[in-house]
Each structure stands twice: as structure tokens, then as C-alpha cells.
Amino acid sequence: MSTGAPLRPSQGPPLEQGRVPVPAARPPAVKRMLPARWRARARLAPWWAAVAGIWVLSRLVTTTLVLILARVQGANPWTGASPGYFDFANIWDARWYNIVATSGYPAVLPITSSGHVGENAWAFLPGYPAVVRVVMFLSGAPWAPAAVIVSLAFSLGAALLFYRVMLRVQGRGTALFAVVLFCVAPLAPILQFGYAESMYLFFLTLALLLLLERRYVLLFPVIAVMAFTRPSGLAFALALGFHVVHRWLTRRNDPFPVPERILAASVTAFSALSGFAWPLIAWIATGSATAYTETELAWRSSYIGYQELVPFTAWFQGGVWWLGQPLGIVVVLVLVVGFAAALFAPAVRRLGVDLRFWLAAYGLYLFAVFFPQSSTFRLLMPMFPLLGAIAQPKRLSYRIAIVVLCILGQWGWLLICWGVDGADWTPP
Q1: 341 and 222 Cβ atoms separated by less than 8 Å
Q2: pTM flag (> 0.85)
Q3: What sections of the sequence does the record tag as coiled-coil (predicted)?
Q4: pLDDT of 353-382, one tens digit each?
Q5: Is the pLDDT of residue 422 over 90?
């Protein structure tokens, strides 16, 4: 017969002699830092409120950085010294979008003194300036504030959609932190400037979400708008092609019925046609079959002169221009191999095949047609699903360090690419 009071459920058996008691598991550092009632409210808050809160805080940080730089900005081709926020947010290519919104596109291509097509509005697609023009008409606001409002609205929408995309491949906490990185990334200031990036990222994120959900019918209108916002139809068609082939090869484990095959193949073809739509429109409007490509080539002429567009050569040309022979070639090859290897890293593989298909397709597209220079950072923004891989480590010190580095990166990008210093050759 046992003696003494019976053990209560909250009690354990007496410690064996010589054993050291094991301390109870401590809550994660973040939980120890926050009051219990705050944590309870955070768990009860709807997902969209959490994402919107992250977006608001990030915009406050970015706007502060922009205003600090604007205050010390000297006179430049677009503004006087110390411009206001809206004026400062509409320099560089924002002026081209303004021209498209107010004057449209030239029927006659400008020709330089050397007989080549010069820089002109055909390089800038009409989706974003058309939306801003509608806002201008409805509100009576001038271009500068209307452009910023449109960009801000689409950036919030993109953040909300990005959370939904990440939630399909990550847990809630990691998905939210991926949104944090999206909102504070080094290029985040452009999400509130007079550029088409916010609108494009919104429709790209929507397209990726629809692809993950296999809602092929809804992809048709989204791809159409996306293709007239930023050049993207060919890259997304390649990603869709990878998707169709993968579904066909895995159809025994993942059924791919005939109606879905027809829809998936049709939307792939539609995306490819959308990629050629704008060059075709430029040809019809100007009478020059190469109007669009020659216009795009005008922007790289200040680096390597006027040359024909030969796919998969521009990065090597850029490598040689920046670093010389043979280092430029070697660096480009290392970048190509490094990017391919990154797609198979465990953290990236956790994003799933479809997001990796997009990363591979867009990377191949950039490698085929883009000349690397300071705008490269902006052109890499559509690879934002990689933020889902960067967001996976849960250590608090890691996450704080990444956010701080991102904000420092914003300041660096603003100084190098957005701020204008005399005859600046580092366009954003």
C-alpha cells in the first residue's frame, strides 16, 4: 500500500536520485517579447489585416527614406532642387509613361544623326499609363499624384496576393515573413513611384496564384493585361509550357484530364501570342517591322553602340563591356551556373515546381534579350517568389538581420539608381 498524498495530474513522478531536472521548453523569442494579449489578437486578426499592416509600416519606412533623399536632391533634368515627393517619384522613365498617357505613341520613329532609331515611347507599354489616365480623369488629379496612387494601390494588392501564393507552399508565419521581405526589399521604393512595376507584379502574382490553383480559364484575361503592362508574355508562356509538360509526365499520379490539357495548352499558346502582340502593334502603327526591337536597342547603344538583337549574346556583351576579356565571360558563365544550381537548392525546391518553372522561364527570358546594366535590379523584381525561400529560416536574429539589410539596400538603391547626380548613367 502506498503512503502519502496521491499524485495530481500536474505532478510528475519524483526525480530519480542524481538526475538533473529538465527545464520546461521556453517559448520562441518573439513570443517572449510580446504580451499575451497582443499574441492573441494577432492570431485572431484576419490574414488581410496582417498583410495590410505590414504594407503600411513598410510604406512609412520607404517614404521616409525617399523624402530624406529628395531633400538633398539637386536640380536635375526632371525637377528643381529639393523636389516634393510626387515630383521626385516621377523622374526617369516615369516621364515616358506620362508622355504615353498624355500624347500616345509616335507614328514616325525618331531617327538619330547616325541614322538609327532613337529612344521613344514605343518601349513603354500602355497598360499602366492607361490606368493612371483613368484615375486622372475621374479625380481631376495631375499625372504625378495619380501615378503614385495607382502604384500604391497595386502594390498593396500584390502584397495581398503574394501572401496567398506563399500560403500554398509555406506555413502562415513563413508566408507573412515573405510578405515582409516583399514590402521592404531593396527595390521596394519603386512600388510607390510612377513606374509600371506595381501593376505588373499585381497581375503576375495573380497569374501565378491562378496557375497554382490550375484555374486556366481565368488566366486568359490576366495574361492579356499583364502582357500590355510589362513585356512578359513569352516568359510566362515558357513557364506554362514547362507546367503542361510536367503535368503530362506525371499524369499517372496527378490526373490530367483531356479538358484540362486543352485549356492548359490553349492558355500557353495565348500567352506566347500575347508576347508578340506589342511588337506587331508597333509595326502596324509605324510601318516598321522592327520598330519595337530597334527602340529597345536604342537604350543599350550608349554602352555598346547600335547592334542587331541576337538572342543570348547581350549578357556576354555586357560582361565584356563591364569587366573586359576574359573576366566578363567567366563571370556571366558563373552567374548562369549559380542561378541554375539555386533552383535546386532545398529551400527553393520547397516552393514547388510551378514557381520554380516561372523562375527558370523568366531567368531564361532575361538571359536571352536583356543587356545587363543598372536597370538589371529592377528587371529582376519578377523573381520575387525567391523571397519565399529566403523567408524560411525562423531564427529571430536571422529575420531581423534580413529586414535591416533590405532597408539598407533600399537606401543604397535610392542613392545609386534613383537619385540624380549630374550626368547620371545609372538609371533605375
Answers
A1: no
A2: yes
A3: none
A4: 999 999 999 999 999 999 999 999 999 999
A5: no
